[in-house]
Amino acid sequence: MKQEYDAIFTTEIATIGIQLEGAQLIKLDYLTRRKSKKPTSKQAQNIRDKIEKYLDAKSKVKDLKIDVKLNVTPFQRKVLKQLALIPYGKTKTYGEIAKKLKTAPRAVGNACRNNPVPIIIPCHRVISANGMGGYSGATDGVMMDVKSQLLKLEGVL
Fold first, then answer.
1. Which of 28, 55, 91, 134 is in Cβ range 3.0-4.6 Å of 139 for a Cys bridge?
2. Burial bucket for residue 63 (CB in 10 Å: 0-12, 13-18, 19+)
3. Phi, psi (5° rounding) for residue 91?
4. pTM, full prediction
């Protein structure tokens, strides 16, 4: 089944597809080999503009105030809530978040992997105790390059 996006756009870091339900963002995907698609609504245009400004290295935008609707499990919601509390330019380990939630680091990693709105809920700020960890289900390749670039943008690396 082909994903229907409300906008597709390319930034310095990645090509991004966004999907909305009404005015709320429900999905943000990193895409390969996709042509840009003009936003289908004013809300999609607004979200695209905010993400582009955030990802622009010359921009001073450090906070993405975007209304999201999360279709996730109660456990994922708890993890994502903790991720949203990690400030711009800071990181936490899977273990630190797991300890706070009284769960296992691997469970935190699984919730991060299934984050429907990366960047907006900053799972890139979660690292392993001895390295970068993973990003969007990958431990090498393009997705790790994206994580590295996001952390560089925030001055972490």
1. 134
2. exposed
3. -135, 160
4. 0.92
Which residues are bridge partners to 138 per DSSP?
135
Q: Is 27 left (phi over 0), alpha (psi -120 to 50) or beta?
A: beta
Residue 55: CB atoms within 10 A of its CB come to 20
Please state the rounded mean pLDDT for residues 16-30.
96
**How far apart (Å, rounded) are the C-alpha atoms in residues 6 and 79?**
27
Q: 74-153: what CATH class?
A: mainly alpha
pLDDT digits (tens, 9 = 90+) for 41-76: 999 999 999 999 999 988 888 888 999 999 999 999
**Residue the block writes with tokens 């997705």:** 143
Domain boundaries, the chain: 7-55, 74-153
